[in-house]
Each structure stands twice: as structure tokens, then as C-alpha cells.
Amino acid sequence: MGVDGRYAQADGHLEGAAAEAGLDRLVLAPAIIRREQGRAVEGRVAVLRRRNHACAP
């Protein structure tokens, strides 16, 4: 848990949980996910895809 009282998972934890759920990571990138009291709050954006999922052309 971060000093602000919010949960803060490590990238490895997120990737492990995604893999257990049968998801492949396409993107895991830093991003400003919100603003609190006028300040940017950094986080990550994850784009996941179900494993063995056929994409339409």
C-alpha cells in the first residue's frame, strides 16, 4: 500500500495475475491516471487480451 493509502501493485504482480486469468499483456505503460488536488497522479495503463483469442481482420 502506498503512503497515500491506495493500493500499488508491482508490474510483476499485475502480469502474474493476468497470466493466471488466461490473459496476455499487450501494453503496460506509465500514465497519468487522474488528478488529485490539482496534481497529476501517476499509474499504469494495461491492455490485455484473452489468450488464444482470434482477432477479426
UniProtKB/TrEMBL annotation:
Name this polypeptide is given: Uncharacterized protein
